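Worked example 2:
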Amino acid sequence: MLNTPEILISLAEVAIALAGFSAIVVVMKRTTSGNWARKDADQFHGMVIHSIFAASFCFLPSIINVLIQDPVTAMHIACGVLGLQIIGHCLVVMFYASVGSWAKAFLFLGLLFGLLQFAAFSDWGVQRELDLYIVGVLWHIMQGGFLFTRLVWIPAERIDE
């Protein structure tokens, strides 16, 4: 079996590295006026927020376990918190004006991730809470990576031949 604390620490390192890439985005997206397009600003904020959430949720089970002293209950509570956060985050982002229809459709997948986390919290026949929790953290890392890629992607019409 994989060592879950080591996996969560590794994922936290990836999330922090992803947040560190924000400097690249700032340099690439800076215009001569210094202003950002609304869509780019929303994507940048999303990238940083997803990275912060991913890193925070990597440490949450350990923090809860210190307070409760029961690893199983701590994992259930961490799953519930992560599930509620993912669901709330997806619902808020769906109402951003700069979010396109493809992104809104993709956010429904996020709602499913959140519901799975909440099912692990409520113990509705869901086993392997640790694996589901890691998948929930990976959701944030993948979202941050996706937003980073969208921000640094250079459209074909902006490339000189």
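The CA atoms of residues 43 and 147 lie 6 Å apart. The chain has one domain: 4-152.
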